[in-house]
Structures are given as structure tokens and as C-alpha cells.
Amino acid sequence: MAAMNGGYSDNTPAADPAGPPAKQNVAPAKTVDTQSVLKRLQSELMSLMMSGDPGISAFPEEDNIFNWKGTIHGSKETVFEGTEYKLSLSFPADYPFKPPKVKFETGCFHPNVDVFGNICLDILQDKWSSAYDVRTILLSIQSLLGEPNTSSPLNTQAAALWSNQEEYRKMVEKLYNKPAA
Amino acid sequence: MAKQQEESNSNPAAAAAGDWENFRDDDIMLQHSAIRAEQADKIPFLGDKEPLSALAAEYQSGSSILLEKIKILDEKYSAIRRTRGDGNCFFRSFMFSYLEHILETQDKAEVDRVKANVEECRKTLQSLGYADFTFEDFFGLFLEQLENVIQGTDASISHDELVERSRDQSISDYVVMFFRFITSGEIRKRAEFFEPFILGLNNATVDQFCKSSVEPMGEESDHVHIIALSDALGVPVRVVYLDRSSCDTGGVSVNHHDFVPSALSSGGSGLEINPYITLLYRPGHYDILYPK
């Protein structure tokens, strides 16, 4: 499904650099173009900065608003309390019809995260909808930390250990590498 | 989980490393998407108007009950217009039927009425906590189509252009998403009313249902979606059922159900509703029907 050819652009008509169409009813007046994705991402950034949700943050990389770096903190009273994880979010050109690709950049010992940082979460796959945004994605991942789905794990060792929270906490501490600031 | 694996396999670095297994997986994926694209090409988002004989042709070697039912349909309906069976067919059918109705009648009072309902829906979503930016583009695009089918402005579009736009993925998908937001907002707003239907349908909470069966693209519509959209916009919908069911008494008849917005039906005058939108339902799929 994802881009084997390394680009997402083929699904979306490129923005017309030649300026406005000669007559408005010749070309469809407003379509999904890069402009509307940019506007949406900028709104998301604004809303995320205004929301001040504790324990989550994200910001675009310097030169590319389609690539963001995010941070989530493990929630209190979970085995992830006190830990902090960096994530990468890359947005396709047909966002928000398709979800961003979200990966853990910091190693995370969790039933639904594999060794490459891939996350198994339905809202990032078949249950994605345009109603989600960066804020709700990060909040969902944050709550996934404390409430894993152990029935179809990516990390079977973590899934098996989950029932023993004390041992699990020790494992989290042992494997945790605090990301560089 | 399988999906995760495919994604990591499609990592270009892994492929460049000459891992033939990965190449094979990618080949299969490409092939799958090629097949999907080919199927999609056969049926556009919206087809041409076809006589009902085209429908009968599908069942020539099949069930005689269906052929008899199509004969009965032929008395009342002049044509069918197919939509692509990609899980969004109810919304795409609704979109085209409604805009075509406005284009043909130039009913400005109806446009004003539906706009007022759309504004209500906007407030509903805001009060439910949806961030404006998640839905405003979809609202904007629908309202624009609504204005464009009214003739006499620079932006007015012809019937042919409406068909063209309805076949344009970006426009059609935006309007589908608009309807999905409207539907979800209405269900959440009247959660108590919809809860028992939803429980009966798939044993989910209202929130789970909206998140997993209404808001994502490609999720099929059931009577819950139709009731909610029809109520929210105040647009009656008739659904004609074409299935193998028959009466025990031997007579074949074609059932239909009118979804009448609560705002209209509470008038209670037993008034004959003349729905703008008539859809043909065959298990799992909706197409557009044209009454004679």
C-alpha cells in the first residue's frame, strides 16, 4: 500500500504552477492540492501548540512540514511512567485521506511496537479517518502504551511479560535509552 | 500485523540490499494494487444512466425472482446509474442525486434550507469537540458544489460538469468525507436514540461505531447511517430493495423504505413524501434509481 516508489505524489494532482485557470468552471474549482494539505498541517501545528496537552508535543522538521518529530511521555501510574519517546511522523501528499506514517525513533519495549519502531494501531491503518490529527494520534499512542493489545502483538516477548507488571517495569527500565534532547 | 510487515518490507533500503524475498512481497503488493486499479477503472465513481434492461441483463442466467422484480421496477423507474462498490457508494449516490436534483429544479429555497442545516451540523461538531480544521475543508467543498449547481453565476456548472466532478476523485472523496462528518455528528448528538440500533448492529458503543464504521473512508453504510444523514440534512431518501426475498403467498413485490427526516415526519399529516433521492439497494451496494 505504501510507497514502494519512494513518493506519494502520484495519487494527487500536482498544484498548477501556471497560475489561476483561465476560467473557473473549466477546471474543478477547488481540489485536493498541496496547498490544502499545507494549510491543514499548519492548522494542526497551531492547535497542538495552543492545546498544551501534558506529555505530548510535536514539531515539523526545519525544512519540511511533511515530516514531523514528536515526543510522548509515559503516563503516570503505568510501567512507562518517567520515560520519554521520540517519534517520527511523515505525512503523505493525500493527507488527511491517508494517515501519516508514525514510527518510534526511541526504542520502545511494547507489545504493539516492533524492533524497527513500527506501531500496530488501527487508527494508523484501516480505521484511519480525517477526523484524527497529530494531537489525537499522539494521545492515542500515549494511551496505547498503558493499554496494549496483547492478542495480536508485534513483540511477543513484551506481550507475554505484560501480565507481570513488576517484571515488565524492570524490563522497561533496563532497555530504556533516554533520547538526546 | 501483516500490514506492518509489508510496510517494513517495502523499505527501499531493504530492497536495495538485494533481499529477494522482499522484492517478491513488493511485486505482489504492486500486482494487488494494479488489480485494484483495474477494477476501479471498470466502474467509475459514478456511471452513466442506463436503462433497467441493463440491470436485467446481469441476472439473465440467474434468479427468476430477481428478474420478475426488475420487471416490476421497470414500471416505476426509467433508469439506473451505477456507483463504484468501494464502501462509499451510499454517500456518492447521495451526493450526485441531491446535487442533480438541485441542478434540475433550481430550488433556491431548498438550497437555503439545507445550508441552514449544514450550519447546524457545523455547530454540532464543534460542540462535540471536533477541531475546525478537521472538517472545514470538506464543508467548504460541499457548499461550493451546492452553489455551483445554481445557474446564472460565473461559477455555475452544467449537468455534464456535475457528472465530471462527481467522477473526480478529489471532489468526490471530499464530499464523501463531508457526509461522513455530518453522519457521525448526528449519531453522536442523538446518541441515546441511536444506541439501541448500533448495539443491535455490531455490539459497539456509539463512540466506537462512529470511529470505526462511520468516519473512515470505505466503511459501508447501513440504515443507521442513512437515518442519521437524512435527519441531519432534512433530506428524505427512498431505498428500493432488490433481493431474493419473496412473499409466502406467491406474489412477487418490490419493497422499499422511505427514510423521512424526523423534522418532516413529526408534522404527522400523513403527507405523501416525494423523496429527491431514490436508491436501489442490492445486498452490500447502492446505486441511483430514476423514477418515471
TrEMBL record, chain A:
Region (Disordered): 1-31
Enzyme Commission (EC) number: 2.3.2.23
Family matches, as InterPro entries: Ub_conjugating_enzyme (IPR050113), UBC (IPR000608), UBQ-conjugating_AS (IPR023313), UBQ-conjugating_enzyme/RWD (IPR016135)
Gene3D superfamilies, per the entry: Ubiquitin Conjugating Enzyme
Highest taxon of the lineage: Eukaryota
Keywords from the UniProt entry: ATP-binding, Nucleotide-binding, Transferase, Ubl conjugation pathway
GO molecular function terms attached to this record: ATP binding; ubiquitin conjugating enzyme activity
PANTHER family documented for this protein: UBIQUITIN-CONJUGATING ENZYME E2
Family under the similarity heading: Belongs to the ubiquitin-conjugating enzyme family.
Protein name, UniProt field: E2 ubiquitin-conjugating enzyme
From TrEMBL, chain B:
Keyword Coiled coil carried by entry: no
InterPro entries: OTU_dom, Otubain, Papain-like_cys_pep_sf, Peptidase_C65_otubain, Peptidase_C65_otubain_sub1, Peptidase_C65_otubain_sub2
Residues annotated as catalytic: D86, C89, H285
Keyword entries, A-Z: Hydrolase, Protease, Thiol protease, Ubl conjugation pathway
Cited CDD domains: AtOTU1-like
GO MF: K48-linked deubiquitinase activity; Met1-linked polyubiquitin deubiquitinase activity; ubiquitin binding
Gene3D superfamilies in the cross-refs: Peptidase C65 Otubain, subdomain 1 (3.30.200.60), Peptidase C65 Otubain, subdomain 2 (1.20.1300.20)
GO biological process terms, semicolon-separated: protein K48-linked deubiquitination; proteolysis
Cellular component per GO, a single term: nucleus
EC number: 3.4.19.12
Annotated site location: Interacts with free ubiquitin: I227, Y241, D243, Y281, Y286
Annotated family: Belongs to the peptidase C65 family.
Protein name per Swiss-Prot or TrEMBL: Ubiquitin thioesterase
